[in-house]
Amino acid sequence: MIVKNEEDNLERCLISAAGIADEIIIVDTGSSDSTVEIAKKYTPNVHFFPWINDFSAARNFSLSKAKGDWILILDADDELKSNQKNYIKELTKDYSIDVYCFNTLNIINENDKKNIAVNLNPRLFQNKPGYKYEGAVHNQLISVMKRVNPNLKVKNAPVDIYHYGYLHSIVEKKHKRERNMKILKDLLEKDPNDTFNLFNMGSEHYALGNFKEAFNYYLKSYELIDPKNSFYPMLILRMLLCCKTLKSFDQFYYYAETALKHYPSFTALYYLRGCINYYLGKTTLAIDDLEKALSLGESDTALTCIKGAGNFRPTELLCKIYYEFKDYKKCAYYCSELISYPEVSEFDSLKTIVHCLYKLNASREEIEEMLNLMLDSKKENDFIYICNLLIEEKDYNLALSYADKGLENLNSEDITEYMKADLTAKFTYFKGICEFHINNYEKSLSTLMNLNNKQLLELSKPYLLLLGIYCKHEDAIKTSICSDGLIGKVCNSLYSLITGGKPALLTIDEKQSIKYQYVIFNIFEILLDIEENGMFDKALSLLDLINSKDAHLNLGKLYYKYNKYNLSKKELMQSISINNLIDEEGSRILYNLNIKEP
């Protein structure tokens, strides 16, 4: 490997590769940190090569130091999966193969391991004369080898190497873009029609978010390239991603269709086109493309540019589509398929299945079977999540029973006293809400008034206000309206409206209004749940006490959720006519409402 200032990465790479090679060769091109010291802990074969703005020159110098029959190429910011070491060793026993290509899984966001860009790169090859690299930035190896050995045998092997070099923190720290673009600019001045360098320059702009510039470079490369070229699939993919970002949808469809003529099994293109069709409201076409992607499965290694394009990604989007169109049977089917993919939360998939079962009027036994699977998924605080889920589904009796189970379960949990007290308070809060919704007002009042958790008591205030009114309990009313917090202030204003008063403005600040609006809409939902229509009509005036431009939009969504379709359409149309405001969800609701009309 060649390295420079890799003290943050090198040890991870060397540990991951331990025991796989007879010798480790590291070439340093001018580190000013502790890279060399780290390297010497693992190998005596540390060499130095002056940096001359040419990665291939440095890489070829490292090859010249290798004595073994086979060479494995790694970067300092790579990491091998430990369970693949023996498999790689087995590959070296077959001398009929000259080069093995492995999957490079590029981690773009360290907090989101699901979104991985995949490249196919030559990583393991025989150590033969003339086998060397070309290309000052992104090295090319196989094309050079074929000139030396026209009968070169290349094989794709199912080996995954994680690459962290594209993480924003690493790129920024090492000024990679600036360095690469300077080298590429010099190369393109010498040969402006070099398709690979045009592609690489486009990729540097793409990484910086300069999508228009990136597309222009990609287009120049596209106009010159042979579709059989090894990087054509990645070039097309990047062009389409630029078109998607720039909303150049006509170009997207044109280039996607053209590419599929050359590569009809290019799964990622069907998946991407499905995403675009969904975005543009072409739902039937989206479903066709997504199902095509699933039928093809993950592309062969050379075309695997987006990890999951042939399995969990289209499945996720199909779940979303069928959920939005209230086809809960198909949504549940695709959610059940999602459970098998480690990239997707099993718990979240089960949660959606439970929601679908409620919509399909499934039996309590079927629902509890899914809930027990959620408990088996070993998610921390799973009883808390299940109580939340059941309250969202408005199955308050079942939620109450799971709150009781959660409290019982605490006795067998090995947790701190602090955590036990915190969870006890949460289950007690859930019990109070459930008791309220099953009309056991006196019990709910007692449960919530005895909460000893300040934060949960604050959340309980809308319920305490209603309970105080229903049960004529002055202390409950006082508790709900006496507070400097947002919820207490809103409850105070609501109580004033209910009793015929004229409350003062809560705020005119837009940012603060967003926080107030969240509280207000939570109260709206409580009132709609218990069908307090008269009180709800009075509560609507709470929106006059804040400065909200999206109140009509959010009311439209709320009414739609509660099947008040005429009111939903009225509010959404007012949002458009008064505030010129609509979003994707609002547009889909209007689309669905128009379908419902005769």
Structural description of this entry:
The chain has 598 residues and is α/β, with parallel strands linked by helices. The protein has a domain at 2-171: Spore Coat Polysaccharide Biosynthesis Protein SpsA, Chain A, CATH 3.90.550. The protein is built from 30 helices and 8 strands. The longest helix has 21 residues, at 417-437. The N and C termini lie far apart (68 Å).
Summary?
Its EC number is 2.4.-.-. The chain has 598 residues and is an alpha/beta fold.
Topology:
Elements lengths: L1 E2 L6 H7 L9 E3 L6 H8 L3 E3 L6 H10 L5 E3 L5 E3 L4 H7 L7 E9 L8 E11 L15 H7 L5 E10 L4 H7 L1 H15 L4 H13 L3 H14 L7 H15 L2 H14 L4 H13 L3 H14 L15 H13 L3 H11 L7 H14 L4 H13 L5 H11 L3 H15 L6 H21 L3 H9 L4 H6 L1 H11 L2 H8 L4 H13 L11 H20 L3 H7 L11 H11 L3 H15 L4 H13 L2
Parallel strand pairs: 1-2, 2-3, 6-8
Antiparallel strand pairs: 4-7, 5-8, 6-7
Helix pairs in contact: 7-8, 8-9, 9-10, 10-11, 10-12, 11-12, 12-13, 12-14, 13-14, 14-15, 15-16, 16-17, 18-19, 18-20, 19-20, 20-21, 21-23, 23-24, 26-27, 28-29
EC number: 2.4.-.-
Enzyme class: transferase
Keywords: Glycosyltransferase, Transferase
| Residues in helix, % | 55-70%
Biggest β-sheet strands, sense, barrel: 5 strands, mixed
The number of distinct helices, counting runs of at least 4 residues, comes to 30
What's the number of extended β-strand segments?
8
How far is it from the N-terminal to the C-terminal residue, by CA? Answer: 68 Å
CATH architecture of the domain at 2-171: Alpha-Beta Complex
Task: Summarize model confidence as the mean pLDDT.
Answer: 90
EC number: 2.4.-.-
Protein name: Glycosyltransferase
Keywords: Glycosyltransferase, Transferase
GO molecular function, one term: glycosyltransferase activity
